[in-house]
Each structure stands twice: as structure tokens, then as C-alpha cells.
Amino acid sequence: MVTLKGEHIYLRALEPEDLEFVYNIENDESIWELSSTITPYSKYLIKQYLENAQADIYEIKQLRLVISSYNNECLGMIDVFDFDVTNKRAGIGILIKDGKDRNKGHGREALKLLTNYCFSHLNLHQLYCNISEDNENSIKLFLNQGFQTIGLKKDWSFNNGEYKNEYLFQLINNVH
């Protein structure tokens, strides 16, 4: 049985009831930089997305899960993207929505659960993530979970009138 349950949080599939939560995240301009978004999304488009969110990861190459507390509060989302079966790799992205819920271990627990799932159930060999050089909390999170810095992409993103560098992190599953 696949378990995506941790001590303080669990990961679950998106549900139609998550419309407002996803809508608020996708339309929060303060975090657009994280997803390279520059336009808002309508509730109609997000509703359509939620209706198709249950599609198989092998078909759509993505898995988006809600990070939920045991009192069913939506804390954030964690994604597997660019799922590549041939090369056995995928990207990971994570977001804890509200500042009040950050730095409490939720991201660490969610990342550990998803990393274990990717290696044990999806049979991936490696995971990677891209993090802006000024996102110190995310850099610390991924480094503490065993990811290694493998590169720096200079002037990679342009936000608020300035270019920012972006680090590339990678975690290789050495258990065969």
C-alpha cells in the first residue's frame, strides 16, 4: 500500500473542493516567480484543471498533491513535473502557501514523503529542482534532504526589473 502520510502532514490528490485554494495560489502575484507565471488564471480554467488532475502521471507527466494537516487544512502543494520514464527522472516543486505555516517542518516532511514515493513507487533514479539564488529557505530545505547543487544558471529569470541566477539541485537514488 502506498502511504503518503507523515507524522504531522499527509499528501493527497487534488479534489474539486480545492478550487478556491488552488485559485488563490495560482493568482498570488507574490509567488508567480516560483512558477514562471505572469498571468492570472480564471476559476473556470482551474476548475477544468481540477477535473483532469486525476489523469495518470505516465500520461500527463505530472503529479500535483496537496500538503494537508491532519485537521484537513490545506498547507501547500508539492509537484512532480517533467516525469521522464525513459531516463527515470523528474523535477520537484514545493510551496507552503502561508507564511504562518512555513518553517514548521511541513515542507521537509512533504519533500521526504514525495522523494521516497518517487524512488520506491515510480522507480525514478533521480530528482531535480530549480531554485532562485535568493530563496534561502528552499535551498536549505533541499540541501538538508540530500540534494546537491550541480549548477548555477546565470541571469536565468527576469523579475521586477532585474535578472536572477537560479541553482539546479539534484538527488540521485543510489539504491538499486
TrEMBL record:
All residue ranges annotated as the N-acetyltransferase domain in the record: 9-170
UniProt GO MF annotations: acyltransferase activity, transferring groups other than amino-acyl groups
Lineage: superkingdom: Bacteria
InterPro entries: Acyl_CoA_acyltransferase, GNAT_dom
PANTHER family per UniProt: GNAT-FAMILY ACETYLTRANSFERASE, SPERMIDINE N(1)-ACETYLTRANSFERASE
This protein's name: GNAT family protein
Organism: Lacinutrix neustonica
